[in-house]
Amino acid sequence: MVNILQFWKPAVEILILWFAIYQIMLFCETTHAKQLLRGILILFAAFFIFEKFNFQVLVWLMTKLFGISVIAILIIFHPEIRQGLLRLGQRHFFSIALKEEEVDRLLKAISEAGEFLIREKHGALIAIENGDSLRPYVETGVKIDANISSDLIQAIFTPNNPLHDGGLIIQQGRISSAGCLFPLAQNNELNRIFGMRHRAALGLSEETDAVIVVVSEERQDISLVYGGKLYKDIGREELFGRIKEIMVGKNA
């Protein structure tokens, strides 16, 4: 019994540490924390080198620097830390991933609707839930809970429809809600180049790992937004490829 416990405890600790490190690295990929982590690793490497060669003055300076840097990091990277804690609270740890054929069906409906809306010079904003829960944003709109279809998406984003100005949210392969409000990205450069839909898409991508499709009525093109990055004016094949890489490739 003692031997089993001795093996079980370290195994659980290793799994917890592995999961925590993986989540930190995953979060760093989509924020400025990536540069922060790189800087911390460089400082630690320098500290061990100085200690190895017994550079007493440099070791003393580095020790003092570490004490001050903890407070500085909390102040400078407050938005990123807040974003990480918010994402942790929204995370679906045991969500059921969509199958590849379900993702194909979803993408076909979105692309067909997008092509129709472009021809009619109508705009659209569609968010696909990934790992982070979009429940707080679902509650800002009108719940629909319907099978996804090109016709339904077209109807929702037809002008004079009460829901066409907000965002549409897809959860588990179904249209969950429409007319939803998303946070706007605070970037002055975006104000001059893109409209409200693109700013809302980028704002949501900064708060969650959602995959967001934007149909621009002014530019008459389709853009993909993910992880705070905007891929504008992409074709159907590229849209399929990027979204499947994110959703199916990650699950695989």
H/E element order:
HHHHHEHEHEEHHEEEH
Structural class: alpha+beta
Average pLDDT, all residues: 80
CATH architecture of the largest domain: 3-Layer(aba) Sandwich
- Amino-to-carboxy terminus distance: 37 Å
Gyration radius, rounded: 22 Å
Secondary structure layout plus pairing:
Elements lengths: L1 H28 L3 H20 L3 H21 L1 H13 L9 H20 L4 E5 L6 H4 L3 E6 L2 H7 L10 E5 L2 E7 L7 H6 L2 H12 L3 E6 L4 E6 L2 E3 L4 H16 L1
Parallel strand pairs: 1-3
Antiparallel strand pairs: 1-5, 2-4, 3-4, 5-6, 6-7
Outline of the structure:
The protein is built from 10 helices and 7 strands.
How would you describe what is shown here?
- The chain has 10 helices and 7 strands.
- A hairpin with a 2-residue loop joins strand 3 and strand 4.
- Helix 1 crosses helix 2 (33-52) and helix 2 (33-52) packs antiparallel against helix 3.
- By secondary structure, the chain is α+β, with helices and mostly antiparallel strands.
- The two termini are 37 Å apart.
- It has a 7-stranded mixed beta sheet with strand order 2-4-3-1-5-6-7, sandwiched between helices.
- The protein has 2 domains: 2-90, no CATH class; 100-251, YojJ-like (1 (3-Layer(aba) Sandwich), CATH 3.40.1700.10.
Describe this protein with a few key phrases.
2 domains, YojJ-like (1, 7 strands, 58% helix, 252 residues, alpha+beta, 15% strand
